[in-house]
Amino acid sequence: PIGGSVRKSLLPELLDSALEWGACEIILENWDPHSSADNEILEKLADHTSLGLHCLTLNVLGDGPTEETFNTIQYWVKKFPKASLSDHFCWIGTHENYLGVFIPPSDPVHILREKIRKAQERLQKPIMLENIAISAGDSTYIDRYHSQLVEACSLEGVEVLLDIENLRLDSISSGRPYKELLSYYDQSII
Hints:
six-stranded parallel β-sheet; two-stranded antiparallel ribbon; 7 helices; globular
């Protein structure tokens, strides 16, 4: 379905349009479970569109989210059980040190698979994983990231949420043809 992602700060202006989209993605951490206004807006979106709950701090490939973040995510997941849930295929730090940037994983695929499985079991919901922009000039490094993402997700039965802009940036920075990088995802894209 045609849709988009809306920032909470822009939603008042976009709400009428977003209600007509086939799909609407929101960044979970920006919404307060204790706010009746936030709950009302998201209920309205969920009634009219296919709601996507996108995380920035789930830290699937790290040591997981902080307890506060997990509780926020869990609240929205339980409130909107039909909504998809996604985060990035990356590491963002530890509980003690949130870096605020997405770091490609350095673990072997079997460990990445274990971490993905653990996150899904804890949330009791499938998670889609999105590619990040590596923006490194090393094409081998770029290839490794994309092949690990596809392999780990394929073996765990996890859908890939392909960010084509991030893929385009990887193509530019590495000098690899866009179609070559896209070919990693031939069987994995949603």
